Amino acid sequence: MITEAQILTALQNVHDPEIPTLSVVELGLIAEVQVRDNAAHVKMTPTFAGCPAVEVMRRAMEDELLSLGLGEARVTVTYDPPWNSNRITEEGRRKLKEFGFAPPAPYTGELNLIQIMDARCPFCNSHDTALESAFGPTLCRSIHYCNQCRQSFEQFKAL
Ligand SMILES: [Zn+2]
């Protein structure tokens, strides 16, 4: 009998190609896990609608579940409720910082430019930073410059 905990452990091997240090579990993409008999159904909530990585991640997740020995593994996508950055786990936030990303501030329900500008440098923890671009390499990241240690860094937006 495969447990929900075993399923979540297996899903730790699947990563969002845009943020490869974080697993889909740490990003908070797993909305629901159902296991019955020898079949599992997992619901995932992608960070962005229409992201081309979604199908890749969905299949990788099914492969991981099948490798546990399940007879049937189904991963479906749900947008209700939508994902927001508050769902990133503590472990996920720690890894983001290690990777040179400022973790997102708490999401309050709307995209807040003041909050985006008020980024803390992940390298030296200084608040003396400047927003260089509200839209980094992907929609969910902004680019900043630290006046203290003179390094550029990216922040994962609260959204
Ligand atoms: Zn700095």
Q: Note the overall shape.
A: elongated
Number of strands: 9
Quickly name the level 1 CATH class of the largest domain: Alpha Beta
Please name the fourth-level CATH homologous superfamily of the largest domain: Fe-S cluster assembly (FSCA)
The total of helices stands at 4
Q: What's the alpha carbon Rg, rounded to whole Å?
A: 17 Å
Strand order of the largest sheet: 6-9-8-7
- Biggest β-sheet: count, sense, barrel? 4 strands, mixed
Note the gap between the termini.
Answer: 37 Å
Helical percent range? 10-25%
Short description:
With 159 residues, the chain is of the alpha/beta class. The chain is 23% helix and 28% strand. The protein folds into 2 domains: 4-77, 2-Layer Sandwich (GMP Synthetase, Chain A, domain 3), CATH 3.30.300; 100-156, no CATH class.
Layout of strands and helices, then pairs:
Elements: H1 4-11, E1 15-16, E2 19-23, E3 30-36, E4 39-44, H2 53-67, E5 72-77, H3 90-98, E6 101-102, H4 113-117, E7 129-133, E8 141-146, E9 152-156
Parallel strand pairs: 4-5, 6-9
Antiparallel strand pairs: 1-2, 3-4, 7-8, 8-9
Zinc ion binds at residues 121, 123-124, 126, 146, 148-149, 151.
